Amino acid sequence: MTEGGVSGVETELFLLAFTLLGGFLALYRPTAPED
């Protein structure tokens, strides 16, 4: 396994987790104070 491949996968997982987290926050707080 190459470090580059592992890094790429880890980055993708991190971005995916971040996106999912944002989705959950949107569901829990549909009305954002900033909006």
Characterize the biggest β-sheet. none
Oligomer: single chain
- Quantity of strands, as a count: 0
Share of helical residues: over 70%
Task: Give helix and strand order, one letter per element, not per position.
Answer: H
Unreliable sequence segments: none
Q: What structural category do the secondary elements indicate? A: mainly alpha
Distance between the termini: 45 Å
| Shape descriptor | rod-shaped
- The percentage of residues in β strands lies in under 5%
Computed over alpha carbons, the radius of gyration is 15 Å
Mean pLDDT: 81
What is the number of helical segments per DSSP (H or I, 4+ residues)?
1
Short description, anyone?
By secondary structure, the protein is mostly helical. Helices cover 74% and strands 0% of the residues.
Structural commentary:
74% of the residues lie in helices and 0% in strands. It has one helix at residues 3-28. The N and C termini lie far apart (45 Å). The relative contact order is 0.10. The model has no long low-confidence stretch (mean pLDDT 81). The chain has 35 residues and is mainly α.
Q: Could you give the topology of this structure?
A:
Blueprint (H helix, E strand, L loop, with lengths): L2 H26 L7
Characteristics of this structure?
74% helix; single chain; mainly alpha; 35 residues
